[in-house]
Amino acid sequence: MNLINKIADSDEGIMAAEKIVKKMSKADNNWYIQNSIWVAKRDEAARKAAA
Q1: pLDDT tens-digit profile of 15-50?
Q2: Cα dist. 26→3, 14, 21, 23 in Å?
Q3: How far is the C-alpha of 34 from the C-alpha of 41, rounded, in Å?
Q4: pLDDT tier for residue 8 given thresholds of 50, 70 and 90
């Protein structure tokens, strides 16, 4: 946890996150959102099946 706090408090962590976001295309972002929706639906179906 200490390492995470150090990274969050430093500019290096912010710069690394900014590089990742700048390299993401709109298609990458759309894929991530759609994949998150599919995962949520799959997990919900699994919970219902296990109940």
Answers
A1: 777 777 777 788 888 998 999 999 999 999 999 999
A2: 31, 21, 10, 10
A3: 11
A4: low
Are 21 and 27 spatial neighbours (Cβ–Cβ below 8 Å)?
no
Cα(40)–Cα(43) distance, integer angstroms? 5
Long-range contacts of 5-14 (CB under 8 A, 24+ apart): none
Inter-residue contact 13 to 7 (CB < 8 Å): yes
8-39 burial by CB neighbour count: b if 16+ within 10 A, else e? eeeeeeeeeeeeeeeeeeeeeeeeeeeeeeee
> What pTM does this model have?
0.53
